[in-house]
Structure prediction request, 215 residues.
Amino acid sequence: MNEFRLKAALFDLDGTLMDTEPQYTIFWGRMARQFRPDVPRLEHKIKGTTLTQIFDTYFPDPAVQAEITRGLDAWEHDMHYEFTPGAREFLTDLKAHGVKCALVTSSNQKKMDSVMEQVPDFSSLFDRILTSEDFTASKPAPDCYLLGARVLGADIAESVVFEDAFNGLAAGMAAGIFTIGLTTNNPAEAIRDKCNYVIPDFIGLDYNKLLTIIS
Prediction:
């Protein structure tokens, strides 16, 4: 019998649980061409960072920030929020086995309101939802995932992180938590050395298979 005890599963949102990254790439690509054509591939460099970080680093002008915020609010409200294949079923199976689940996202609460408007039962899938308002140091800092484990009452050795973006993978690894990378937005060879294990999506993954991966 496996003695390993898994108490907490911590999930990124965009690109991990939800297939939204291509939509964000379009939006930020437009913003980059309009306001920062001097920064190549800006729409890819910002993945996994908070809006505050993006503004501080690339768009310091308050007038530009206000314009982008208006556009982003409208964009996120109208975005299509679709689960990564197998994600909903995996979350349900984890909870059935007594594993507590937390969403740990760099998105703000306003964005989460849009998600829950489109997916009414979304919050019921989690024991806690942590947004950018809940931590000051965002990914790649480990703070958000350390907080996620703590609020679920789990030690880092009893937790697992699911991520897709480089910054998020770095955050999970820096937290000392077993980190599983999804190839939803990056090829396996690009993330294999940045996490403990790689999966394409959540299809076929359940509690028992997860235990064999971690332990």
In short: The two ends are 12 Å apart (CA to CA).
